[in-house]
Amino acid sequence: MSSLQLSLLAAGAVVIVLVIAYNLWAERRARRRAEEAFAGRAGDALFEAVPVRREPTLGDLPSIPAADLDEPVLAGAAPATPPASAMVEELQAPGGPAAEISSRIDTVAVLLADDPIMEEQLEALYQALVQHTTPVHVEGIVDEQWHPVESSPKKSWRELRVGLQLASRNGPVSEEELERFNQEIAQFAESVNAVSQREAPGTAAARARELDRFCADADIEVAINVIGQFGATFAMPRVKQLALDHGFSETGSGGLVRFGPDGMPEILLRRFGDAPGKAAAPYTQGLTFALDVPHVADGPGVLAEISRLADAFARALGGQVVDDNRKPLTEAGIASIRRSLERVFHDMEANGIPAGSPLARRLFS
């Protein structure tokens, strides 16, 4: 073999070694960029207030340190990852008009994929999440805003977020359930060759307990009653006709409700003193006008309307307006209820969950 051939072979070997070394270096850099994007600034973008973030009906979001996030999951052999700045911009997408997820009441997981995640691929995610005790929502980026995938005009997404509600009227979500949620997200991310970021279960569980304490303080029903005098009863056909005349509607289950301007239930009318599950009788000893505080935007205004309705029904039926202890309800009593109601509304507003907002209606369900 000539010296020229030996030189060419040596040069070729050097080139091959250089190509292999470059590929290894490029792969490490892509992995490092993905980790930096999630472990650093991404946590702030998801959980902290930023100038462009506009969660529906909410103010600033609570600050959660990046250290309280699960380590990012890099599925497969670290797919090519966009620059960290691009990832941060994706996580900063504002909530669109239809967006439901909020880190005020949800633990939020984010998934980023190189190849679009198709609509049919989400079926596996839905099946994994169906057993949770509180609502789960999935949203994708549409026109640079988060939008529920169920009503999305798109059929594939590179950016998704999944929110598991942390509490409801049944109590807070447990740390074990939050851990299971994170595992489901990680497994789905791996199946679609995506990267994911989740909140640490311990941190999310602490937020769930705090949210549950807030719910217990704000979950109030205001009720004003009308009862018959001297033990008299009211005929239900007469009550129903009177209710319809005053703007109430009859539900499919036979209940009576008056809707607000937004089409949501505002005042409930039910029998006073009847035990739950008691068979409906043609007569009742009294009526209760009820206001579910977290679900009504104008509590003081609705309270005034309930007081007016109670007076009107008392006059028409020959009854009297009383509190839950059957004591006559005076103007001073109504004023005391109004002050308590205003305090609850102020506290809900201060916590970024205004009464009557979609967020409050979802939380107090």
Distance between the termini: 84 Å
Shape: elongated
- Sequence of strands across the biggest β-sheet: 1-8-2-5-3-4
- Mean pLDDT across residues: 81
Binned, the helix content reads: 40-55%
Note down, in words, how this protein is organized:
This protein has helices at 3-47, 84-91, 122-129, 175-191, 201-218, 236-245, 299-317, 331-350, 358-363; strands at residues 73-74, 106-118, 136-142, 145-148, 156-165, 167-168, 171-172, 194-197, 221-228, 234-235, 249-250, 256-259, 265-271, 283-284, 286-292, 319-322. The termini are far apart. α1 packs parallel to α2 (84-91). It has nine helices and 16 strands. The protein is α+β, with helices and mostly antiparallel strands and 365 residues long. A hairpin with a 2-residue loop joins β6 and β7 (171-172). It is elongated and about 125 Å long. The strands form four sheets. Strands 1-8-2-5-3-4 form a six-stranded antiparallel sheet, with helices on both faces. It folds into two domains: 25-216, no CATH class; 219-363, ZipA, C-terminal FtsZ-binding domain (Cell Division Protein Zipa, Chain: A).
